[in-house]
């Protein structure tokens, strides 16, 4: 018997087999649009969570359905740097990396955190604040351009909650609200908001990812004893 890790990258066939077993056993299957995720439970205990591919749709009546014309955009945002990209059928078609002078050199503290404690009286602080505001305007202008050009299914975002007020209160607001059903916070860590991480994020979102509880490993073990699956740490 192979050892099953907590997190697996699986294909759609395995995902369908897991759902079939769950349905046969009368388990509860819930879909959460805010995560594009399925949750499988038995007697109020979770067994499996399946993060669906962003090139796949889900309905209770039909289950999985391949979206042959999938469109999604991602915004990876950190203090001072952001990477924004548009993906079609899982392929990165357009991207832009933004940078801004938002970190105070001596303290290494972002201008946003500094404003909460010291205000914005000094010239350097004012410059950093202006850079911060322009930073989010440029990000949102790019996102709005995607919204005007493409029929987007999802917006993916990786952004600290500290930065959300600047994103959504910008003079150029994003093409989605903070509670939009199309907006999904990415379920994995982004460290640098770089072009390379944007590419990697697109690849991760184009696959199915399975999380299993200890009980879930035991229940679904038969599916993995006869198959070698690729692993991915989410």
In short:
By secondary structure, the chain is α+β, with helices and mostly antiparallel strands. The protein has 7 helices and 12 strands. It has 2 domains: 7-53 and 207-225, TATA-Binding Protein (2-Layer Sandwich), CATH 3.30.310; 71-204, ATPase, nucleotide binding domain (Nucleotidyltransferase, domain 5, 2-Layer Sandwich).
Task: Describe the 3D structure.
The chain is α+β, with helices and mostly antiparallel strands and 234 residues long. Helices cover 32% and strands 29% of the residues. It is built from seven helices and twelve strands. The strands form three sheets. It has a five-stranded antiparallel sheet. A five-stranded mixed sheet has the order 9-8-7-10-11, sandwiched between helices. Strand 7 and strand 8 form a beta hairpin. The longest helix has 27 residues, at 123-149. The mean pLDDT is 86. Belongs to the ANKZF1/VMS1 family. This is VLRF1 domain-containing protein. Residues 68-208 form the VLRF1 domain. Keywords: ANK repeat, Coiled coil, Cytoplasm, Endonuclease, Hydrolase, Nuclease, Repeat.
Please describe the topology of this protein.
Blueprint (H helix, E strand, L loop, with lengths): L6 E4 L1 H13 L3 E5 L4 E6 L2 E7 L4 E4 L3 E4 L4 E8 L2 E8 L2 E9 L11 H8 L4 H27 L4 E6 L4 H5 L14 E3 L9 H11 L2 E5 L1 H6 L1 H5 L9
Parallel strand pairs: 7-10, 10-11
Antiparallel strand pairs: 1-12, 2-3, 3-4, 4-12, 5-6, 7-8, 8-9
Helix pairs in contact: 2-3
């Amino acid at each position: 018997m192979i050892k099953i890790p907590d997190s697996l990258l699986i294909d759609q066939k395995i995902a369908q087999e897991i759902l079939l077993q769950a349905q046969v056993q009368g388990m509860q299957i819930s879909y959460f649009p805010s995560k594009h995720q399925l949750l499988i439970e038995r007697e109020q205990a979770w067994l499996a969570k399946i993060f669906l591919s962003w090139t796949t749709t889900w309905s209770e009546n039909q289950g999985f359905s391949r979206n042959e014309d999938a469109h999604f955009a991602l915004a990876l945002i950190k203090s001072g740097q952001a990477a924004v990209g548009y993906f079609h059928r899982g392929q990165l078609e357009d991207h832009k990396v933004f940078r801004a002078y938002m970190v105070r050199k001596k303290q290494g503290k972002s201008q946003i955190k500094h404003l909460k404690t010291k205000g914005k009286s000094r010239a350097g602080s004012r410059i950093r604040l202006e850079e911060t505001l322009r930073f989010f305007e440029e990000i949102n202008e790019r996102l709005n351009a995607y919204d005007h050009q493409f029929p987007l299914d999802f917006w993916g975002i990786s952004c600290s909650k500290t930065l959300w007020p600047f994103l959504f209160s910008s003079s150029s607001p994003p093409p989605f609200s903070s509670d939009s059903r199309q907006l999904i916070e990415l379920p994995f860590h982004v460290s640098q908001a770089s072009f390379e991480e944007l590419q990697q994020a697109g690849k991760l979102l184009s696959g199915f990812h399975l999380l299993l509880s200890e009980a879930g490993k035991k229940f679904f073990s038969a599916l993995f004893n006869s198959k070698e699956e690729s692993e991915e740490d989410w």
